[in-house]
């Protein structure tokens, strides 16, 4: 049986940090030690910031984004084209697209994908809210930006079926060769998708 080298408070900090994606037990120990060594510069301010986030973070009732206001900052930004909605699986996808800065549109976060094997159906996702936004009018394009997985494809087809007959253009993200990618290193599925989605030069 291993001997304890720290008090229960530090052990609890390490255990909680180990639950953060990307941090395993070893990384969590290193992170905890770094925070403790920089107690005044890091640990105190981090503790305050986490307490504030816990008290103030909300889920946007319109799009499903996380923010400290509802509706969120994205939904209330007048500089965005709110007639275009980018549909994403998770908030992390929204943040990734925002970092890319390719399109100044509105978003809708589904909260996952349809997965009958895992018991995730349409009522478990924010699909009804999306349909309500589109049927309310004023939306000219819906960009379905879900992952290129079986569950993502299923979700995209389900959403498209639910919006059949409505006056809205539905598009998908292109799949294929990444910028800087070499053909020799790509899998067959990616190459097939790239060939199907080829464009004129």
**Helical amount among residues, as a percent range?**
40-55%
Domain count: 2
pLDDT under 50 segments (min length 5)? none
Strand order of the largest sheet: 4-3-5-6
Report the structural category: alpha/beta
CATH architecture grouping of the largest domain: 3-Layer(aba) Sandwich
Order of helices and strands: HHHEEEHEHEHEH
Radius of gyration: 22 Å
What percent of residues are in strands?
5-15%
Number of strand elements = 6
As for the CATH topology of the largest domain, it is: Dna Topoisomerase Vi A Subunit, Chain: A, domain 2
Alpha carbon gap, first and last residue: 67 Å
Shape: globular
Tally of helical segments:
7
Zinc finger (C4-type): 60-75
InterPro entries: DNA_Rcmb_RecR, Rcmb_RecR, Rcmb_RecR_Znf, TOPRIM_dom, TOPRIM_RecR
Protein name: Recombination protein RecR
GO biological process, one term: DNA recombination
